[in-house]
Amino acid sequence: MFCSIGALQKTVCAAPSTVLSTITKRLLSISLTSKMPVKVGDAVPSIDLYENTPATKVNISELCCGKTVVLFAVPGAFTPGCSKTHLPGYVNTADDLKCKGVDEIVCVSVNDAFVMAAWAQDQKAEGKVRLLADPNAELTKAFDLAIDLPPLGGTRSKRYSMLIKNGKVEQLNVEPDNTGLSCSLANKIVL
């Protein structure tokens, strides 16, 4: 059924205040939950990621609290660019980054925890880079850095890196084409 704007206005104006209050709350809720891309100065959201197994939760907000953290994301574990360039760059520079004051280096991917654990072992990342699974893309979506890549299974993360200090994003480097290997590499993190 269609109605005119005037009829809609009359209906809304005649509605009891509780209905108007409910409508207002719903509209406010929708506007407050709309995604905005992460930006410098934003706080890291309180979202659980997984390390090694689904039983080992790591809350990313708690991990970053009071620390300097380099967090980078890749479209997929074991993919060529991620395995040959992106992750190895951070593994190879981990000691240098940590000498410069980085407490944790974290790689995030929309994969399950078992895949990330196998990839960490394959890349000899233990003790250098923590590989955390974002299986439902919760962090990726909270940062509004999701991308649809059907050949990799659908929703994945754009490729990016960020420097986080005491839970707030201090630097953000999102690849211009979302998946390339330029600004998100380890040598682009400025401490």
Structure description:
The protein is an alpha/beta fold. It is 35% helix and 23% strand. It is built from six helices and nine strands. The strands form three sheets. It has a five-stranded mixed β-sheet with strand order 5-4-3-8-9. A two-stranded antiparallel sheet has the order 1-2. The chain has a two-stranded antiparallel ribbon with strand order 6-7. Strand 4, helix 5 and strand 5 form a beta-alpha-beta unit.
Write the SSE topology:
Layout: H1 5-14, H2 17-33, E1 48-50, E2 57-59, H3 60-64, E3 68-74, H4 80-99, E4 104-109, H5 113-122, E5 130-133, H6 138-142, E6 146-149, E7 154-157, E8 160-165, E9 168-174
Parallel strand pairs: 3-4, 4-5
Antiparallel strand pairs: 1-2, 3-8, 6-7, 8-9
